[in-house]
Amino acid sequence: QQQVKQSPQSLIVQKGGISIINCAYENTAFDYFPWYQQFPGKGPALLIAIRPDVSEKKEGRFTISFNKSAKQFSLHIMDSQPGDSATYFCAARSMVGAGAGSYQLTFGKGTKLSVIP
Amino acid sequence: DGGITQSPKYLFRKEGQNVTLSCEQNLNHDAMYWYRQDPGQGLRLIYYSQIVNDFQKGDIAEGYSVSREKKESFPLTVTSAQKNPTAFYLCASRDYSGANVLTFGAGSRLTVL
């Protein structure tokens, strides 16, 4: 129930195309859904995040779509560029105890995106 | 610049040796985390600490140990009991305000020969 299932495992998109990565979860206690971007040999960095009371959030070329009833959320990268080539992780936050320090992130297994010129 | 420093970036060790990975943060974050990353496996939580002198096991704590003697530091020891230690190790921290999200270090790649 703590899992976050991410697909596809890898994705190849032409420059200028739309990249779409999907995630699904079961635990209705998840209350925050961030996406992280990781370049080779680096640590992941927060890209964009959404709360479950919002159906869509857009930041530049990156958009999260959230479907609470289906327990699914997705990342869309518009006008994909070679510089977007990276591994993307979806995540979901839940409380594991009392207090502000008790949040824990559960990560999907990642999607390796390659944008070809 | 505030951030998380992990060292060393690359580490080679023989089987049966313990090795300690360093993680230091100057973000004044309260919570710190260690994740292990393997190809196709995503990020798996090893240990986390919400406050100095306290830490909890994550999903894959066996064969690892940690300490949290200072707020800024959360070293991870990979012991000889860890059956498959070759991996990319990521340290992260989080404050308790704002968006409450994780900030990651650049990682340490451990290879056991």
Give the strand tally of chain A: 11
Average pLDDT of chain B, to the nearest integer? 92
Mean pLDDT of chain A: 93
State the assembly state of the protein chains.
heterodimer
Low-confidence parts of chain B? none
Overall shape of chain B? globular
> Which percent bin holds the helix content of chain B?
under 10%
Task: Explain how this protein is built.
The complex is a heterodimer of chains A (117) and B (113). Chain A has no helices and eleven strands. Chain A is globular and about 50 Å long. With 117 residues, chain A is mainly β. In chain A, strands 2, 4, 5, 9, 10 and 11 form a six-stranded mixed sheet that branches. The mean pLDDT of chain A is 93. Chain B has 113 residues and is mainly β. Chain B has no helices and eleven strands. Chain B has strands at residues 4-7, 10-13, 19-25, 31-38, 42-51, 54-57, 64-66, 76-78, 87-94, 103-104, 108-112. In chain B, a hairpin with an 8-residue loop joins strand 9 (87-94) and strand 10 (103-104). Chain B is globular and about 40 Å long. In chain B, 38% of the residues are buried. The mean pLDDT of chain B is 92. Classes of the chains: A mainly beta (117), B mainly beta (113). Chain A binds chain B through residues 6, 9, 32, 34, 36, 41-46, 49, 89, 93, 99-105, 107-110, and chain B through 4, 6, 30-31, 40-43, 45, 48, 50-51, 90, 92, 94, 96, 99-107.
